[in-house]
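pipeline stage [seq->struct] | target=BCL2 interacting protein 1 | organism=Ailuropoda melanoleuca | residues=194
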Amino acid sequence: MAAPQDVHVRICNQEIVKFDLEVKALIQDIRDCSGPLSALTELNTKVKEKFQHLRRRIQELEQSAKEQDKESEKQILLQEVENHKKQMLRKTTKESLAQTSSAITESLMGISRMMSQQVQQSEEAMQTLANSSRTILDANEEFKSMSGTIQLGRKLITKYNRRELTDKLLIFLALALFLATVLYIVKKRLFPFL
């Protein structure tokens, strides 16, 4: 039958291995994460929690190793503790890399949002320019139409001015003919002998 201390050591070792695998899986999830910043932050928080659990279990294992009666078992457990600490140190480096990549991702997402806003503003400016161009083209077409109407009006006015001159000339000639006729009639009646 195993001593309670040996059982505790085995449980600590199993939990350390379990937390180690969970941390590796979470770090891989962080590497594969292409989603929003909130998902990356959540994964980062989970990694920190698992690291805290892992540190506690390693400390418990170290404490159990120090409490071992046999020197050989004590040395073996302390060697395991050192190995776990070294692995955790490498994982801590990975965690800091994950945090750095998280910060970089956040910066890139911010830049992406700013670029998206710039593109949207550019699209709005282009739309405004297109609308202004359409308005100018419509005004130009109206101006051409009005110009044609004005030219037609000018031609009509010139024609009416000529017609008025012709009418005045005809009226003058008709009046002159009438007066000549009246004079002729008056002359023949008053002075028949002339």
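stage status: PASS
auto-comment: The helical segments are 4-32, 37-66, 71-190. Residues 136 and 142 are 10 Å apart (CA to CA).
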